[in-house]
Amino acid sequence: MSLPPGFLDELRSRSSIAQVVGRKVTWDTRKSNQGKGDMWAPCPFHQEKTASFHVDDRKGYYYCFGCHAKGDALGFIKETENVSFMEAVEILAREVGMQMPARDPQAQKKADRRTELAEVMEQAVQFYKLQLKTSAATEARDYLAKRGLSEVVQERFEIGFAPDARQGIWAHLTGKSVKPDLIIDAGLCAKPNDGKQPYDRFRDRIMFPIRDPRGRCIGFGGRAMQKEARAKYLNSPETELFDKGRSLYNHGPAREAAGKGQPLVVAEGYMDVIALATAGFGATVAPLGTAITETQLQLLWRISPEPVIALDGDVAGLRAAQRLIDLAMPMLGAGQSLRFCVLPEGQDPDDLIRAQGPEAMRNLVEGSKPLVHLLWQRETDGKVFDSPERRAALDQSLRAALGKIQDVGLRNHYAMEIKRLRAELFAAAAPKRQRKSWNPGGQFPTKGVALASTKNSLLAQSTDVEERVREAVILAILISHPDLLPDFLGDLETLDLHGADHRALLSALLRHPDETDRDRLRNILEAEVDKRAIEKLFSLSHVQVVTAARPQTDRSFCIRALSDELAKLQARRLEIEGIDEATSEISGLPDEGLTWRLSQARGDLLDAERRGSEQEDTDELDRGATAADLQRLIDGEVWVKKRR
Fold first, then answer.
1. Cβ atoms within 10 A of the Cβ of 349, count?
2. How confident is the model at residue 122 (pLDDT cuts 50, 70, 90)?
3. Fold for domain 104-242?
4. How do residues 435-478 score in pLDDT, each as one tens digit?
5. Do the beta carbons of residue 587 and residue 628 sit within 8 Å?
6. Of 51-60, 93-102, 359-368, the least confident
7. Topology of domain 7-96, per CATH?
8. Zn fingers (CHC2-type): where (predicted)?
9. What is d(CA 455, CA 633) in angstroms, rounded to the nearest whole number?
10. Mapped to the 3 state alphabet, what secondary structure does 53-104 carry?
11. Distance CA 484, CA 491 (A)
């Protein structure tokens, strides 16, 4: 349908986005300023406790600093009501009292056709429900009773029965004067090529109506009663109403239940959904006979930011999880992922609930694994990494997998978690070297213990302080000059920071590499991390004296300062790695060898600091434990047992 010029502008000017959004959210009165139309609330698109969803009523736009959802009043109605754009226009026009223009004849004809088909499908629902009560459906009723589906449950899910007749639904609908072409186009009957009368697609099957989020019946799923049937489960064909790759079973009720706080569970089939829903998991959906598609994944994320995929614990279930991982990786983002719970082998949700009760299923859902752990399991299960080549192959496959993640900040977090899992795997596989902590006399510590103790008390502790100082300066410069972020992404993505606040701020910065407006970035960081964390950062004395952390400072000067701090931070960490390596091998080195190794580490540090000093030092940081401390260790030969 085409709208006349100016219609949408007038519609937007007449409407208040704050009123439209206000029907779905609860405003944060402490943060909102109603007089200025500056409104804040927890986001309706993802689960959160803080008010990161912002509505500017004067400009007519909304934006979530958490999940990055954005749009105008029409976009909000479209997303929250799951309607088309034109349907959103109609809803908003009715609210503000505007008359919708006459539809384009072709579009009107198409809409009317879909309405007619939906009415035919509704008649079919009622026909199949009545057939379930007949004598022909005795076996079907026995099966449902055996599966524990009471009459109340059957009514709730509108379960029916298609009789074993060639023209059961056909005769019923044509007898009610329904046009034959509507019956065929709705997917209820098929017309043979030989010119004979159309025949029912569903025969001798238990029928499950499939409804869209608006509640319209768009298709059916049928379970065969005969073992020799060509397909155990049969879905409606693709029609003007039904596209199985874009639909979910139990979509509408699941969305409502998820909105009330229930976890969204994705099961494999109709019976799984019904079993879970009747056991208290109302927010349960299922794909329609195929692997989850990209469109279905987007539909799931509209309902919940972290759907829980419930899989059978067999080979087929694990393979389905692996396929889903590959599909989801490029689409992941902050607050938009998947979790997985694997059922005991040979059991579906109904079996588990019957055997151990709903609590067993609840424990599985609550203990579901994040996607990154399933990825790691896929790449490592059943494999042996006893050679450099095999380890290199693992690294290569993991890099390829992580490279699919588009969100830079999220990719950085995945890399850190994979690094941790990798360290655990190889640490467990490595042989443990036995060391003696005391010499035979039992009076003096060994060389290794003496050096480690000295290093921990002097070098490591002061290094930790210095690293925190440099990290704070780096973060402050980036927040004050967000346009520098794209130039340093490569260095920042691999940077591992101390403390939860530092890590959270860096992660938030990496999620917004294109945000160059300083004030807007500050608002984003306050919403995603914590306002107090930013205030604490800029209140530090060593940050306040840094010229580059001030907004008005020249950009080229800030680039040099940021490069300098990153170089010095890297140099310090390289030095510590050198000392750690020397310490780990001390038991096999003579005193002269150890002295040489420590001297080499000191030399590396001096070289790195000389390189860093070629740039202008902007803040005169206290270096803490520097090369002089290390030299004192060497000159004093602290590892040598002193004679009394």
1. 28
2. very high
3. DNA primase DNAg catalytic core, N-terminal domain (3.90.980)
4. 444 343 444 344 444 444 444 444 444 556 778 888 889 999 99
5. no
6. 93-102
7. DNA Primase; Chain A (3.90.580)
8. 43-67
9. 9
10. EEEECCCCEEEECCCCCEECHHHHHHHHHCCCHHHHHHHHHHHHCCCCCCCC
11. 12
